[in-house]
Backbone:
């Protein structure tokens, strides 16, 4: 049933911020993971200290159970006092909740429409520039070769990502920032969950998809971290520490500037066709598609080693394509997602060749396509992912996403028909929305540049 809410009272969004809907089940279906004691607040807003467990002997990061991402537009003309109000509310949340997954992680990100529409002069002076790409570090979102023409390129001013093992903490933060404060008009509310299955019991995605009765739920392996059946948070394929900061690898000129300690965030929503995935692809074909064509792993394995030494090169991806006529999801991305050489970061840390750069913080969802939207949502649950990732710049994200479609960093375009099975995961994915954001460092998280 399609419910169009445009024109209804803003109260509808307010109600949806704290509403739990089907996600209330997460708390009944999963126990909160053990977490380390709280640490001091980091200068970065996007980093959250997460526990690592071993699955099949492979180190895996345990993501927070609950996620909510709210987008909006600025609804006030007085940015200076808005800056104080929002910072005050964020500082309140910092005091109430530890900056861990057991407490709360809040990441406030700002879109190009905010910078260009509200603080254009200061933005012209302070916008970080991507020296490698010779383009601004924050670019408008683009459609990729495998995107349908219907993919919406969004124009929000702000996006706030809230993460915690406690649904209550996430709801309290959403209400505090978007309901108590009247600074934003909410455009969308997106909710979802991650993890919960590493202890060998039936996993959260399996149980949630089953409870929501989405087509193909019965086909999801019992302990899968993702609806599509494989673990995606191996430590080795997530960027470590500050690597995705704007300044760390020197891709941008942010070092020492206003945005030092910030990062870039891409947000998209992707529908997943579970039935097509599990019925049309056998296990080996799913391994070929997610990892690398021809990779041999134990039958029904879910967590597969992806250490630096195993990362694919562009020539390896081309060779696999010549031999087998297809590309894998991870292997095609690795020529851009991994460091090509040992690198000393601006932070003084040494990042070895083969280290992953992007920090993916995506989460499973049953939203269709959102939990709530100004433009209406479909009430029927649908399996998907709210894809959220931190990279050092928009261009860095675009390189990764293009590689996923067979457009390699050296300019080679592998001849893949959009949506064909040869094109990795894309044949079972459908991206509905995209936008790029800049995440300022914590000290400038509230209405960045408004004070200048
Ligand atoms: C529903 C959609 C998606 C699913 C189910 C999915 C699943 C996975 C899985 C299971 C892995 C881990 C594989 C491994 O260990 O090598 C992975 C890795 C990765 N994925 Fe995705 N993915 C999805 C969408 C995306 C998108 C849209 C991007 C954007 C570029 C992306 C970027 C990456 C990256 C960068 C890696 C790590 C590659 C590496 O450095 O090893 N994924 N994904």
Residues:
């Amino acid at each position: 049933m399609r419910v169009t809410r445009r024109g209804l009272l803003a109260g509808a969004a307010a109600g949806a911020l704290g509403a739990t809907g089907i996600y209330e089940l997460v708390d009944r279906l999963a126990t909160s993971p053990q977490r380390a004691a709280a640490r001091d607040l980091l200068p970065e807003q996007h980093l959250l200290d997460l526990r690592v467990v071993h699955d099949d002997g492979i180190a895996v990061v345990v993501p927070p159970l609950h996620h909510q991402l709210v987008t909006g537009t600025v609804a006030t003309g007085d940015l200076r006092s808005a800056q104080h109000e929002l910072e005050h509310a964020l500082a309140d949340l910092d005091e109430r909740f530890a900056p861990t997954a057991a407490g709360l992680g809040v990441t406030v990100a700002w879109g190009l429409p905010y910078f260009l529409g509200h603080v254009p002069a200061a933005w012209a002076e302070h916008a970080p520039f991507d020296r490698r790409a010779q383009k601004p570090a924050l670019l408008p979102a683009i459609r990729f070769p495998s995107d349908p023409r219907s993919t919406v390129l969004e124009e929000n001013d702000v996006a706030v990502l809230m993460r915690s093992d406690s649904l209550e903490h996430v709801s309290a933060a959403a209400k505090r920032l978007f309901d108590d404060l009247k600074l934003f008009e909410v455009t969308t509310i997106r909710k979802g969950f991650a993890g919960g299955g590493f202890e060998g019991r039936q996993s959260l995605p399996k149980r949630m998809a089953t409870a929501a009765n989405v087509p193909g739920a019965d086909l999801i392996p019992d302990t899968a971290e993702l609806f599509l059946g494989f673990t995606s948070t191996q430590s080795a394929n997530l960027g470590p520490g500050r690597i995705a900061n704007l300044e760390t690898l020197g891709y941008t000129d942010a070092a020492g500037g206003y945005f030092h300690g910030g990062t870039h965030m891409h947000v998209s929503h992707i529908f997943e066709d579970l039935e097509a995935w599990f019925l049309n692809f056998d296990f080996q074909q799913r391994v070929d598609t997610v990892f690398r064509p021809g990779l041999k792993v134990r039958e029904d394995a879910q967590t597969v080693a992806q250490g630096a030494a195993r990362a694919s090169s562009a020539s390896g991806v081309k060779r696999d394509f010549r031999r087998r006529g297809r590309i894998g999801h991870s292997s095609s991305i690795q020529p851009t997602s991994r460091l090509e050489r040992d690198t000393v970061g601006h932070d003084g840390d040494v990042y070895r060749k083969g280290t992953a750069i992007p920090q993916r913080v995506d989460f499973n969802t049953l939203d269709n396509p959102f939990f709530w939207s100004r433009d209406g949502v479909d009430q029927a649950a649908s399996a998907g992912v709210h894809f959220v990732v931190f990279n050092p710049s928009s261009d860095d994200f675009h390189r990764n996403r293009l590689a996923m479609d067979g457009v390699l960093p050296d300019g080679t375009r592998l001849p893949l028909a959009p949506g064909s099975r040869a094109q990795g995961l894309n044949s079972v994915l459908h991206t509905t929305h995209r936008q790029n954001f800049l995440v300022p460092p914590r000290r400038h998280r509230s209405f960045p540049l408004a004070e200048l």
User: Anything to note?
Assistant: Residues 45-444 form one domain. The longest helix spans residues 79-96. Residues 1-9 have pLDDT under 50 and may be disordered. The two ends are 48 Å apart (CA to CA).
